[in-house]
From TrEMBL, chain B:
Keywords: ATP-binding, Nucleotide-binding, Transport. It comes from Falsiroseomonas bella. Residues 20-251 form the ABC transporter domain. This is ABC transporter ATP-binding protein. SUPFAM superfamilies: P-loop containing nucleoside triphosphate hydrolases.
Length: 284, 270
């Protein structure tokens, strides 16, 4: 082959056809995100500063930032808000742990046994279709205004996606994988632990991610309705005082907590389901 | 065709004692009452290589699953090395169309998996040296710590062969093991398979859709009728061993292929 044919540069007069990508689609991800944020804040600034809406409904970005700094300082210096955050965090951790334990156990029962699938699953489906937040007054009546009622509601909400994820995961193994394990003389327990559970990890984590979002919603809803000393109570009080900027600031910190929980689950998934990134599993 | 005549056609007695014996084995799947397998009689002698060929859905996989102890027969008797097959056994190695390596285990861990399941983790570790040697044998040296996601289809299938061989099974049951591979890789794998079987004096039973594959590998090719499957002919292949790919061009090979094809045509399918 001659040197000329290897050159990438087209000779003058050659017809060149290349894929056209508009400048708009070529903006890098980080720049695109920053652009959108700036635009959002600019519009927010305009709308809130020129008397279009009242500050009770929409505080200015500057006012929100002031509160953001105030709350941040309070949290960093170990003020009363840190105490509230710790209570909410405690509720979150306990609820998530309980939901994982109960959800996983029920999920294995439903996914692995005929009894679970026939007898337990229909009830779980029925319960899952109910608006679970509506159970909050019952939990408060049963467990009082402490963290127990919040934990109960958050656990209740977060358990279902984990049950469904676990059970679906146990059904993920295909006929080939089952047969392969059978030929190796695997017991039912070995098949469950060494094959079905690892095979079902992706589905389990899908459930876990939904639960991570649900558990946060459950805890805060519990605090709104059941009082106590958590972060949700701070929001409720600020809201009652029509201090909307404070509400915004508190919600932002709460979002960070939610993001951290979700991020932890995603990190764990990357660690445990490392093989998912390459999708080739079998020959053919 | 009577069972007695089929027995006469099979080259029993030439190669040694019978290892597999099937008498009147049939299968009707209870669900939807499908008779998948008619009455099958079969004797495999030690160190022999046999193939079964037949239309899609005629019950070949069913027969193999029964032989492997994965599915119970509706009627009949399956004996292996003097004892009845009533479930999965250590002396049976089985390979499916799909390699089914487990993606969270490295190639080496996949190969020793049958040992881990039967004898525990310590025994599996003790077998790692042997597993390395097997991987080297099939040309996978250097891929021991690679995960299946990074192996090609042919490589995964070779690792699956190692996994089948690690327990040193006396018989190999192969259900279209290489049908997912391209023709070149497939030819190569078939020659490997022959070499391994001869070196180990293993008894092999292969399900295939390829007439030439059946002829190049087998001592006997069983032709199965459409569902419910039954052996209609046992064609003895008298090509010398070891077989080479060049034999495909010989007149004798062509004659055998034609003979099997004529039996398949009579069954009116393909
Ligand atoms: N688990 C099962 N339940 C009910 N029917 C089955 C089952 N497995 C197979 N069959 C039926 O038994 C018949 C034979 O199936 P089998 O898989 O043994 O065919 P095969 O010869 O291996 O076909 P192929 O060449 O396509 O792999 C088919 O008609 C199929 O529908
Ligand atoms: Mg089949």
């Amino acid at each position: 082959m001659s040197d000329a044919t290897l050159r990438a540069e087209p000779a003058p007069g050659d017809t060149v056809w290349v894929e056209q990508v508009s400048w708009f689609d070529r903006i890098p991800r980080s720049v695109a995100m920053a652009l959108l944020a700036v635009a959002f804040i600019a519009i927010w600034h305009l709308v809130s500063n020129f008397g279009i809406v009242s500050p009770i409904i929409l505080p200015t970005p500057a006012e929100t930032l002031r509160h953001l700094i105030f709350v941040g300082e309070n949290l960093l210096t170990g003020g009363y808000m840190l105490g509230s955050l710790m209570i909410t965090l405690q509720e979150l951790v306990i609820s998530f742990a309980l939901a994982i334990f109960i959800g996983f156990t029920l999920g294995v029962l439903v996914g692995e046994t005929a009894f679970g699938e026939r007898a337990v699953m229909p009830y779980l489906v029925a319960l899952d279709t109910m608006p679970k937040v509506a159970f909050a007054p019952i939990f408060i009546a049963w467990l009082g205004f402490g963290i127990e009622s919040k934990v109960a509601l958050a656990t209740f909400i977060a358990t279902f996606p984990i049950v469904v994820g676990t059970a679906a995961g146990l059904h993920a193994a295909d006929e080939n994988a089952r047969m392969a394990f059978k030929t190796m003389g695997a017991t039912r327990w070995q098949t469950l632990v060494k094959m079905k559970l690892p095979m079902g990890l992706p589905q389990f984590f899908t459930g876990l991610k939904i639960a991570a979002v649900g558990v946060m919603a459950g805890v805060i809803t519990g605090e709104f309705l059941g009082g106590g000393k958590g972060f949700g109570e701070l929001i409720r009080v600020a809201s009652t005082n029509l201090d909307t900027a404070r509400v915004f600031a508190l919600i932002l910190y709460l979002s960070l907590l939610g993001l951290a929980t979700f991020g932890l689950v995603v990190w764990l998934e990357r660690k445990l389901v490392f093989w998912q990134r390459s999708s080739v599993r079998t020959a053919g | 065709m009577s069972a007695a005549r089929l027995e006469a056609l099979a080259p029993s007695g030439q190669r040694g004692r019978p290892v597999y014996e099937l008498r009147g084995v049939s299968k009707t799947y209870a669900r939807r009452n499908i008779q998948a397998l008619g009455s099958v009689d079969l004797t495999l002698t030690e160190g022999s290589f046999s193939s079964v060929i037949g239309a899609s859905g005629c019950g070949k996989s069913t027969l193999l699953k029964i032989m492997a102890g994965l599915v119970p027969p509706s009627a009949g008797r399956v004996m292996l090395a003097g004892s009845p097959v009533t479930g999965p056994r250590r002396d049976i190695g089985m390979m499916f169309q799909q390699a089914t390596l487990f993606p969270w285990k490295t190639a080496l861990e996949n190969v020793v998996l049958p040992i881990e399941i039967r004898d525990g983790k310590a025994a599996a570790r003790a077998k790692q040296g042997e597993a390395r040697a097997l991987l080297e044998l099939v040309g996978l040296k250097g891929f021991e710590t690679v995960y299946p996601g990074e192996l090609s289809g042919g490589m995964a299938q070779r690792a699956a062969i190692c996994r089948m061989l690690i327990t040193e099974p006396a018989v190999l049951l192969l259900d279209e093991p290489f049908s997912a591979l391209d023709e070149l890789t497939r030819d190569y794998m078939n020659m490997e398979l022959q070499r391994i079987c001869m070196a180990r004096n293993a008894t092999a039973f292969l399900v295939t859709h390829s007439i030439s594959e059946a002829v190049i590998l087998s001592d006997t090719v069983y032709v199965m009728s459409p569902r419910p499957g039954r052996f209609v002919e046992a064609v003895e292949v008298d090509l010398p061993r070891p077989r080479t790919l060049e034999m495909i061009t010989t007149p004798r090979f062509g004659a055998l292929v034609d003979r099997i094809r004529s039996h398949l045509d009579k069954g009116s399918f393909l």
